[in-house]
Every structure is written in structure tokens, then in C-alpha cells.
Amino acid sequence: MPGVDSLSKYTVNGFNALMILAGEPCRPFDLERKGLNLGEGAAFLVLEREEDAAEKNIRRSERIWQQQ
Predict the structure, then answer these.
(1) pTM of the predicted model, to two decimals?
(2) Which residues contact 6 (CB under 8 A, 6 or more apart)?
(3) Rg (CA), the chain
(4) Which is it for the CA torsion 24, 27, 35, 32, positive or negative?
(5) With left for phi above 0 and alpha for psi between -120 and 50, is residue 58 left, alpha or beta?
(6) pLDDT tens, 2-54?
């Protein structure tokens, strides 16, 4: 599947072989950090027409618009 790289033992072993994994907790903005920390995350985005949301009495949290 394009764009997918599972965080498996195979992947972790590859980073271990490069000796770049940190042995301490994640500190991404610390100048004294030592190596990488691996992790996974997920998100989803629901788009709905404003008129449809209004009919369902759903409060809009954000609006996407295009400048012309």
C-alpha cells in the first residue's frame, strides 16, 4: 500500500542497526536530545456541507474556504 510503513520489529531493527534510536523519553525540542523515538499516530477528517450540518443542528468547528 503506498504511503504506509508499519512500525514492525523489522522497521525497529533497521533503526537499531543504524544506532540512532534514543534510549530515553522523547524530547523533540531539546537541544540535548539523543537520537530518535519511534511512534505511530492516526487522525481522520470529516467534511460536510454547511447546509447539511445546519439541518442536523451540528455546530461547525472550522470552515474551509477558497480565496478568489
Answers:
(1) 0.43
(2) none
(3) 21
(4) negative
(5) beta
(6) 666 677 888 888 888 999 888 888 888 889 888 888 877 778 888 888 899 88
Confidence tier at 56 by pLDDT (50, 70, 90): very high
- Residues listed for the chain: 68
Q: Residue 60 and residue 54: Cα distance in Å, rounded?
A: 9
Residue 50 to residue 47: CA distance in whole angstroms: 9
- What backbone torsions phi and psi does residue 14 show, to the nearest 5 degrees? -65, -45
C-alpha closest to that of 18 among 36, 39, 31: 36
Q: Which residue has the cell 454547511?
A: 50
